[in-house]
Amino acid sequence: MIRTEWIPSAYADSNTPVIRKATLDDKPILLRFEQGVVEAERPFTPEMKAGEQQYYDLDWLLTSPDAYLVVAELNGELIASGYARIDASKPYLKHAEEAYLGFMYVVPQHRGKGLNRLVIDALKQFALSRNITELRLEVYSENASAIKAYEKFGFTSYLLQMRMGLGE
């Protein structure tokens, strides 16, 4: 179990959230978190189908040695998630592998309390344990609050992916 030395001040006087590796037993809650991510991203994705969507292969994320899915738990309740997935880098880059971060979710009543920092710190530790020196993630260009949060953690803009809908 990973515990981090940095504790969000919002939890200083209460029980401390614990960041731990997710298990198959967590899957029902993770499926709910996944729909939370879908709903948060729906306004930025005009081409998304209506209804529930499956973004993640949770079984793979929970069992693969090349993935590390963590949850934040407080008083027996799961309140946040995130994963690092080891990917091969482009052949022209200096690093052979990189860690792609995804499934960054915090339940609404716990947002703004520093949980994403705890999750990202745990994912960074996983990446470093695998000798990975590069973290990547994707964020919608119109999601200013997420961009600002990731910049606070040390991420910088790297590449803008563009799209064009035909027949919309």
From TrEMBL:
Q: Name one GO molecular function term.
A: acyltransferase activity, transferring groups other than amino-acyl groups
- The answer to whether UniProt assigns keyword Mitochondrion to this entry is no
Give the matching PROSITE patterns: GNAT
Q: Does the keyword Transferase apply?
A: yes
Short name of any one Pfam family annotated for the protein: Acetyltransf_1
Keywords of the record: Acyltransferase, Transferase
Domain N-acetyltransferase positions: 17-168
InterPro entries documented for this protein: Acyl_CoA_acyltransferase (IPR016181), Bact_Acetyltransf (IPR050832), GNAT_dom (IPR000182)
Q: Which PANTHER family match?
A: AMINOALKYLPHOSPHONATE N-ACETYLTRANSFERASE-RELATED, AMINOALKYLPHOSPHONATE N-ACETYLTRANSFERASE-RELATED-RELATED
| Name the record gives this protein | GNAT family N-acetyltransferase
Please report the organism this UniProt entry assigns to the protein.
Answer: Mucilaginibacter conchicola
